[in-house]
Amino acid sequence: MSDSEIIDYYYTNSVSGIEESWFTNNSENWYNYIINLPDKERVTYLILVLD
Fold this sequence. Notes:
Structural class: mainly alpha
Helix content: over 70%
Largest sheet: none
Shape: elongated
Strand content: under 5%
Low-confidence stretches: none
């Protein structure tokens, strides 16, 4: 696998459980979901979102 394929794989896994309603409701679901991701998925997600 190339670097970009690895990043795509972990990013896809990290966003697979996110629900759109979490961004419109005032809840902690999104935060709790991201915090509880495995390390590789959490780091990949945060780097891509904050980039």
